[in-house]
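Hey,
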Amino acid sequence: MRVLGIDCGSEFTGYGVVEQDDGGSLRHLASGVIRLRRDALELRLKKICEELSSIIAIYQPEQVAIEDVFYAVNVKSALKLGHVRGVAMLTAAQAGLEVVAYAPLAIKSAVVGYGRAGKSQVQAMVARLLNLPSPPEPPDVADALALAICHLHTTRTFRRQHGSTGWRQPGSCSST
């Protein structure tokens, strides 16, 4: 299975494509960050759509994993993040891909084993799980890869427990 993880942000949107074989081995295919200039919001959203569409076309993921909505203190920042998240979800849907959302605690638990892990811990564990020479930078890239890993681990565990027939979304995440 091949998954595109997207860490939505209004300045940096991280992405990571990870594949898992039948034996459970993870393989890093691509990762990076979409850097957004201080252009008008609609131009930033357009750039996210174009770049994600290109990544989807090149790497052909089967599903997309994003972070679930969380509460933010700054309403303006939360609104901008919601716009970016909506564009990411729409881009995936236009490509015919299912989007699965995970809570931040679930992502960190699946990757690090501790739901309150710090950014550096996530970066280090992602590098270890994917046999990368160094921790992914910036942290947005590590978060996107962690999303993909979380979805792959969750899906594999669910399939082992329930068999592959009649498989739907795992209960620990929300389908959007």
